[in-house]
Design a protein that fits this description.
It contains 33 helices and 23 strands. Bound molecules: N-acetyl-beta-D-glucopyranosylamine.
Length: 798
């Protein structure tokens, strides 16, 4: 492998010729990108091999993170940085007349997920490898990402996200390690002469799962872990009752899309198929790898821990039981004793609709043996609980099969040795509310692990200007020890530093401004206060509250001749689920507001509104660090943690937020002077729900609110008065489930406070610097350390 710039150049040129049969001068930029990618992956393979050997040599315990999503973002630059060859490659290419950033632009964001849970999984992968822990990812190789969002006439339009158009330079396919995953069929139960019961799967339909591995390269360490993506392929033995075409297209479908539409029965079966597909393949691979290394499975629980990222991978539990019992002849009690020491479960949401429940007949038909095992887990659980508590209700409430449904979260809690929430307030809600019965039964299982983000991607890589400033001010220890950011506290009063920070913010804004102009045609000014709300579109995240505030401002600007404020730019970015009508209409509302502003010079004197289409990791990388004000305004109690809030904070934005999720912990760290907390708290929300809440009363209390809400349906925003009817109805006729109206006045006041604070630019900069100084806690290195110490008990291997 290349040792310096000269070797690199020689090797690069040779490879271009060998691969494409053309000279470098005649090669296309995509060809250059593909060659560079391959070189870097091969470079990484050396450490990959060493890491695998070390794990075997040390007989180290390994952690497997099972997750339906890994939103890893582009890898070219971060891999170059992590391998420590960024400068060599950058300069080498420059001398060849190639601009590295042109090659970077060719890389697509991998379409391996949709939201917070998926990005968290990616941050964890980075921290694990960098801290030299053996921790791997297991997921699906989706052929298409969620969707590419286009905005047409203000509406979201979904286009295919063909992220694999150029292939995936980081993966290496390993057909040799394929496994077979069984579906459908029935189970034949027989007892042999020794009285041993056998469960034979009759007429299963097999799908071949083929692994494609991506090296996860740690920063400044040789440690390289594996992110395994499973792709579905046909088996040789085709089911007798199916024609080849149907079989092939069904196979392809399994790994085609992220979260296939579940509005039809067919779609729901497909989701279930996906879940079993990747967990069965993952568990089979772990088991056979373990046998190769140890020649026995007796110590599996000492060498393996599987972290279940939400409920999607929970079928791994009965699947491991099945493999241990049916294939390796363990008795139930032995198998259970291992399984219940291997799995740990993370909950990421308390939203009822996201706590998965599958109709019994789905699992029974698609996975007949797995269903029998779930039934037995349930039977034994209920008996045990009844024995222990003498309480039939307790047994029934915590059952994993009830009302004709399999409750996946319950199955996870019954079978795991650890159950964690993702922020303190979230874990409290799990203990006292959502899973209170389980908490009474197994208090020792419950623990809290506040989320984190990798500061290497979200600060060092995406904001080099700020990183340099921090290095100049406090040295570079924070890169490996993020808690060292605290040292910045000693400098926050320095005028020079405050000014440098503001200058950097302006530079970052300019980068964003150029991008936004290219994407939307809208021109922004760096002198404006950048106020950003970027996350999935959902009623509970309350993008609508922000919209009502904007409507209110527009109404004031138009009616009050004395109106004045510092210019503020409201930036939104969000994808809505394709079948979520309300959410899609909120996107239309945002774009409508944007058009109204663009058409009116008076309004533009004070505000701008812009919607950035197709929000994704690479957009977040330029959006978060250009922001002054971070919007975290969910209904208290609903946002499990949030991780965007941490990225904004780390890049010196001030939070305006409710006491929800990790905002609570941000607030504890920075205090009243350095964030702006408003609105109902969890207790207040509960009290309103308990005592009765009336959306109409809120309108009566506040004329300003009434006027803003009325604008939705009086033709003043849109000539068609029914355009936003669905939003209006949600607020008024469905009585405002997420208390948008109840928080309106408080939110407007909080925004006035923002305006007041922004007047004093130095004081503002100081607050931003304090936020940066306190953000080390939210590095995922800290989170991973907590998981390692409390749950995984794994050791560093290098
Ligand atoms: C999300 C929560 C966020 C949280 C992330 C990561 C899902 C199902 N949940 O609040 O909504 O930050 O998980 O834990 O993606």
């Amino acid at each position: 492998m290349f040792k310096n710039k000269f070797d690199f150049k020689k090797d690069f040129m040779r490879r271009v010729v060998e691969k494409y049969g053309r000279s470098l001068e005649n090669s296309h930029v995509t060809e250059q990108y593909l060659v560079l990618g391959e070189m870097i992956r091969q470079y990484a393979s050396i450490n990959w091999k060493t890491s695998k050997e070390r794990v075997i040599q040390l007989q180290a315990k390994q952690m497997y993170y099972f997750s339906m999503e890994f939103l890893i973002g582009r890898l070219l630059t971060s891999n170059l940085m992590n391998l420590g060859v960024y400068d060599t490659v950058n300069e080498g290419l420059k001398e060849l007349g190639i601009n590295l950033s042109d090659l970077e632009e060719i890389e697509q964001d991998p379409g391996l997920g949709n939201g917070g849970l998926g990005r968290l999984a990616a941050c964890f992968m980075d921290s694990l490898a960098t801290m030299s822990y053996p921790g791997h990812g297991n997921t699906i190789r989706y052929e298409y990402g969620l969707f590419k969002q286009k905005i047409q006439d203000g509406y979201q339009v979904e286009m295919p996200d063909q992220w694999l158009k150029l292939g995936n330079i980081w993966e290496i396919k390993k057909p040799k390690y394929s496994v077979k995953v069984p579906f459908w069929g029935k189970i034949d139960i027989t007892t042999d002469r020794e009285g041993i019961i056998h469960y034979d799967h009759i007429d299963p339909e097999y799908v071949r799962a083929v692994p494609c591995d991506i090296p996860i390269i740690g920063n400044a360490t040789d440690m390289t872990n594996t992110l395994r993506l499973w792709t579905s392929e046909p088996c040789e033995d085709i089911p007798a009752n199916k024609d080849l075409r149907t079989y092939l297209s069904e196979i392809k479908e399994i790994t085609q899309n992220v979260y296939p539409d579940d509005s039809t029965e067919r779609g729901r079966y497909l989701r279930l198929k996906q879940q079993y597909f990747f967990v069965s393949a993952g568990v089979q691979a772990i088991v056979s790898n373990h046998i190769t290394n140890y020649n026995t499975l007796d110590n599996l629980h000492e060498k393996v821990v599987i972290q279940l990222n939400d409920t999607h991978p929970v079928l791994a539990i009965p699947e491991l039981m099945r493999i241990l019992m049916d294939e390796h002849h363990y008795k139930w009690d032995q198998a259970w004793s291992m399984v219940s020491r291997i799995f740990a479960y993370t909950n990421h949401t308390i939203m009822e609709e996201a706590l998965e429940k599958w109709p019994i007949e789905y699992i029974k038909k698609l996975l007949p043996r797995v269903f029998m095992i779930i039934e037995e887990i349930n039977r034994r659980h209920k008996a045990k609980v009844y024995m222990k508590t003498n309480d039939q209700n307790m047994a029934q409430n915590t059952a994993c099969i009830k009302d004709g449904l399999v409750h996946m979260a319950n199955l996870a809690i019954i079978s795991s040795y650890s159950v964690n929430g993702v922020a303190e307030i979230h874990t409290d809600i799990l203990k006292t509310n959502v899973f209170r019965n389980f908490f009474q039964l197994y208090p020792e299982k419950f623990n809290s692990k506040t989320n984190g983000i990798t500061h290497r991607r979200w600060l060092v890589y995406s904001n080099p200007q700020l990183t340099q400033c921090l290095k100049d001010t406090i040295g570079d220890d924070f890169i490996y020890k993020p808690s060292e950011l605290e040292k910045l506290m000693g400098h926050v009063d320095e005028r020079g530093l405050q000014e440098r920070f503001l200058e950097i913010k302006a530079q970052r804004k300019q980068i964003l401004i150029d991008f936004i102009e290219k994407e939307t045609g809208i021109k922004l000014s760096p002198n404006s206060l950048f106020d950003t709300l970027a996350k999935r579109l959902h009623a509970y995240k309350r993008q609508l509250l922000k919209c009502l505030h904007i409507i209110y401002l527009i109404q004031r600007i138009k009616s009050d001749p004395d109106f004045n404020m510092h210019h503020q730019t409201f930036i939104f970015a969000a994808k809505a689920a394709p079948s979520y009508k309300f959410a899609k209409q909120v996107i239309k509302l945002i774009n409508t507001l944007s058009e109204i502003v663009e058409a009116d010079p008076l309004i533009q004197k004070y505000i701008k509104v812009v919607f950035i289409p197709n929000y994704r990791v690479s957009v977040a990388e330029i959006l978060m660090n250009a922001t002054d004000l971070s919007e975290q305004i969910s209904t208290a109690g609903k946002e499990a943690s949030g991780t965007g809030n941490m990225k904004f904070m780390m890049n010196g934005a001030i939070t305006i937020g409710t006491l929800d999720g990790a905002n609570v912990e941000i607030h504890q760290l920075v205090g009243n002077e350095n964030d702006i907390i408003f609105g109902l708290k969890v207790e207040d929300v509960n009290a309103l729900m308990y005592n009765g809440y009336s959306a109409r009363d809120e309108l009566k209390k506040s004329p300003a609110l009434n006027k803003a809400v009325t604008a939705l349906v009086d033709g003043s925003l849109h000539p068609n008065r029914d355009e936003f009817r669905i939003i209006y109805d949600e607020l008024i006729y469905k009585n405002d489930e997420y208390f948008v109206l109840a928080d309106f006045e408080a939110y407007c006041k909080a925004q006035e406070e923002v305006q007041r604070r922004y007047q004093d630019r130095h004081a503002w900069a100081k607050s931003c610097l304090i936020n940066i100084a306190k953000s080390g806690y939210f590095s995922s290195d800290r989170t991973i350390k907590n998981y390692v110490e409390d749950i995984w008990h794994i050791d560093k291997v290098l």
